[in-house]
## 1
Amino acid sequence: MGNISSNKLGQVMHLMLDRPEKKNALTPAMYSDLAKALNSAKDDFDIRVVVISGAGNAFTGGNDILDFMDTPPTGPDSPVMQFLSILHDFPKPLIAAVHGNAVGIGTTMLMHCDLVYATADAKLSMPFVSLGLVPEAGSSLLFPRLVGHVIASEIFLTGRNFTGTEAHEMRLVNELTSDPLAKALEVAEVIANQPPTSIINTKALLKSGHHQAVAMVMEAESELFRIALESDEAQIAFMKFLEKKSKG
């Protein structure tokens, strides 16, 4: 599947963001492949758990800015929105293994995972405001629910990075480990051996109190995100980002 590697390990599906030369920056094709892989895993009774990790020295550098500018996510049928939709609705356990950079969607997707393992020095960030945009993937609801309003405001409004250690303190990460993928696969195996219908029903119950609210927020975020993308603010911010990147 191009830059998404898929490997079935017994009853566990391991999906790897596999574009290490670009720090696994996500393209529309990668979003489309992720959505297809999750839809396939959803319908495959033999798959009980999905683990997501990144190749090389990063989880993901977020969206590939040039591709993002060329093919912005302008509607519910865009690859980005299709991925976010299946991520939100995925009925089976999702586990993330995070190391290195986890930028933008690399952090917001963790809020849809059921368990997250990370290195202490992982570098997470959600620089939406810094790029003239707004939060996405339901993060404007999920993040403050998780960490409280003032911490969420600080991180969103300043765009600052935060470490795996901080993410663990915020309860965004279950456990810090030097080998997140090994830990994620170990726990995935434990879960995969549990009664599968009980697992699916328990996940549904855990999400039932806010599932519809998150869907509504995601829809509002998507519309504001689309409007922001077309603004002069965003275009200037993207140009500054690319200029800074080319210099350093």
Note: The chain has eleven helices and nine strands.
## 2
Amino acid sequence: MGGNYNNNQHKGQGLMLNESVEGDTLTIRTSDAEDKMKRNGWGIKGGIDFFMNKTTTLTLSGRLGNYGFGRGGQTHQHIYSDPFLEDVYSVSVNDSRREGDYYETTLNLYQLFKEEGHKLEAMVMYSSRNGDDWEEQFEYDSDSSYIIDDLFPSGIMTTEAGRSKNIRVRADYTKPFKNKTTLETGYQLRIENDPEDYIYSEYDYDLNQWIVNDRFSTQMDFAEQIHSLYGTWTGELKSFGFQLGLRGEYDYRDIYSSGSDSTFLIDRFDLFPTIHLSKKLTENHQLMASYSRRVDRPRGWDLEPTVTYMDPYNVRIGNPSLEPEFIDSYDLSYQYRFNKSFISLEGYYRITKNKISRIRTLLDGGIIQHTSVNMDRDHATGTELMANLELTDWLLINASLNVFYYRLQGSVEEQEKDEETVSWNTRMNATFKLPADIRLQLTANYRGPTITAQGNQEGFFMTSLAIRKDFLKRKLSATLSGRDLLKTARRESISEGEGFYSYDKFSREAPVFNLTLSYKINNYKQKLRNGNNEEIEIDTGGYEY
């Protein structure tokens, strides 16, 4: 068994500029925010293996714990207009907290058969999460130096209580054949249910208490079932290799919201084929080609039709009408292997249909609403150069360079959009194996600028460093890590829409250092035997805390 405990705190800074037009009046709002964020929690986990015989293992495991996330800070705001109608300074104070408990129980079956590679794996998992979200905001009038002179600030409070339940069932069967082919088939069931109560309150100074506003309070029930049936046929024919797969998924999703008379229902069946082909040119040279179709479903956060107050002039609301994204990917690559290293060059084309994009809309009073919508599609065509180089026994370099053409098409707020750009990303990871069981890892990432549904996002660069030392025959490990060493990981973006212009800049506290200690118990590999009495190792991995 094992356990963990964490208590992390960090700061962030944000700068926002918003311009909105109503009639002949231009209103400008600048915001300078300082946030303090905290993550904490604890957890324990454990399990037991039942070796039914030499070929069958049954494992029962579970974990439970508590999680928490808090955020609070102040925002200085200046609002003025042209022609002159107002010139107002204010201070917004916010505080929020998310916390709850969780537990999970899993039963695994691992069954070996006579032939090598012939096996059955099955799993049943049940998990539950019970938590509350709470958020409070007050807006104070101030002078131009942001000194508060307001005894009765406007105040709002939102609470969200809910309990999510998840069930996972999976069975995978693998059967090898004498002609060097293998058939893998399986079934998976995913069930999720998330009922939530959302309460919106305003502070009444006459009564000196919070008063619930039923107009903005809602109840929501999210329920989804996904059934997946899949199969893969893998094999070799002389110098050719192939993998042919097909997955069928039935998705039933129902969202009920007391604040809407609409029905938000998805009831559909989709097929997802995959084709992977390879041609071995020589011992060290290989060509590969593939096609795959996959799905990316919206998260619960994107679907919740409840209002979250980011600040007095920015609100966020989910979109229960969101549909999944579907991605078709075509790849052609060349790989060269030498010693323990390889270099590969890949060309690709990917098209996403029902593209999920975040957009902003101007509401009355200059309030910006943030939500997500399905656009038409996007296209990405590019090439990526990758290298994994073991230069010496003590130095490993992993790097990539990705250059691509990107095009975004669709409709936003009834306006057609067709934008394109060329961008690039690069990544490098260097691992140094030093004496005395010490490892040092340096990571650098750059993500180039790109276009969005309503504007663009600037590129950013970030570096990280980690040092790990093992003790007690690698049972005890200590890791010291630092993130954003050069303080360059700033996020900047511009969004424009009907009647508004927004500029956002956000940076987290940097550099941030963390120390992690872990200890492994039962770090061994259990050996089972198949029907031919051949030993097969199963890495149980042990438990860490």
Note: The chain has one domain: 2-544.
## 3
Amino acid sequence: MFEDPRILWFIPGLPLLASVVTAFLGPRLLRDKSHWPCVLAVIASCALAIGVFASVSSGFQGLHTSYTWFQTGDVDIGVSLRVDGLTAVMLVTVTFIGSWIAIYSIGYMHGDPGYPRYFAEISLFVFAMTGLVLADNFVLLYAFWEGVGLCSYLLVGYYFAKPSAAAAARKAFLVTRLGDVGLLIGILLIYTALGPSLDYESVMPRGQHASPGVLCAVCLLLFTGAVGKSAQFPLHVWLPDAMEGPSPVSALIHAATMVTAGVYLVARCTPLFGFSPSAQLVVACIGGFTAFLAALIALTQTDLKRVLAYSTISQLGYMFLALGSGTSHEYLAGIAVAAAIFHLFTHAFFKALLFLAAGSVMHAMGGVIDMRRIGGLRKVMPTTHWTFLCGAGALSGFPIIFSGFWSKDEILAVAFKAGQPGSFANSIYILLFLLGLVTAGLTAFYTFRAYFLTFWGPERVPPEAGHHAHESPPVMLVPLMVLAAGAVFAGILLGPTGIFEHFLEVHWMQAAFPRLLPATEHHGNLPLMVASSLFALGGIGLAWWLYVRRPALAREMAQALPGAYELSKNKFYLDEIFAALVVRPLAGLAHFLRVFDQYIVDSFVDLTAHAPRWLGHLLRPVQNGLVQFYALLMVLGLAGFLLSVLMR
């Protein structure tokens, strides 16, 4: 059944149908039952995605069906849906996480006046995201890419009457558009340099025949799109503000799926990046620096969701560090992309879990998420507490037990291998490896800082929570428990055995770029595991010492280092810098152009319009309606004519 290519249409088609049904029938007929089309459609898509995954595991790949979208010149663009190992993993990730988030939303959004609109937008997002990973050519990918951006705008600005939410949605939309412009130019350059076909299968092999400069430009332009969508420096500034949306939106779009679209794009284009070491080095440097910068900012944030937002930026940086480290050795490209996608997979579980747990806290605390106003909730909210602890352990890379340890360790191993032996580029990879190791320690510290501030210490419940703080309802807790199980077991089941890497190698990599990837074996790096474990445990221990054992010491350290503390707390003033260098100059230019248009251009147009009227004023006295005057003019005219003849 799942070997039938027509099945692929139902995976994005069912959520699209649910979105249309909910949008038209929800406000009047479904009302508080508006979640049913979304939940049923996403669960059905998940079941189909798992079936397709099983068929790919059995040896089927390249399943597709298509019709011609448009033809122009020598370009023939089809709506073609294709499945291979990479697509199968992404489909299962998006639909499985999306299913539990949709179920969680039933309890979280209960009673909200925009209930039907919310589920219509969630369904539309799942449609766009599944279409993006199923697309078989760059034009179709770009269409769904923009669809995902539109859904992000709608969901971030869900509370559109709230000025901060409207501003956050506008900021997310505009900042990601900057990256999208680069992606569009990159696709056009692919057409001129590697085209005319824009299908993946046609474009990827041609990379080795392109000039190094052109290929590097193509890769960097594609990466620009990924930088915007996946919130990498310097276009990362939209993601923390996007936390203005509901917590399930944060979990679905800005932690588990949408922001990983950029990682998917670079992974899909690995055959192109593999022939451009310079572009890969840029990817690795941007990823490593972003991971470190976001971790530094997260150290001092007091809003729980913002801490998680910066951790998302940091973890995405890890993924790009891996994708950019697939150079120097042919086989390294394969294990690099496998490490990045493995971390994407585990990150989807534990980051969605953490955002949903934060939403559970927010739900119980009357909307308060400021860690300075809440605390000691482990007894008040026991299930939320232990599920958050599972997510925190996975994010921090707690050794052996949690999934984040295995996937993050593979990324560090790839960066370390890329630094062997000793050219200048290899030296940069060694520095990036060390930066990633330090970032692992920072991640463990700020993650457990958030955990201890929220769930330990004296019980602090804000007045907004009412008289009795309570645990969330079962419809919200069951998704937390399922995702907690994934955060714990996904790594231990897949990491040590190398099953994940082997699946991607056999069912995607060997077909996508066989020249870059001979058969590989999975090897662990025990010294590196020990080093990363020490950094993680050290960060956790330091957080416990500062926020449980000696809480006053944290305040003393902040007072002792006011400059560093203020830099981190104020996000290194990057928003202010961008406002000074980009926003205000462009706003000034816009004001100048508006004034120029109003007083110069409009005045010139008005002058042109007034000219006939002024000319009419000059001739109007001649047309006075008196016959005698007309006769006089005729006589004078005749006299003038005769005079001119006589004077010749």
Note: The beta strands are 63-72, 75-83.
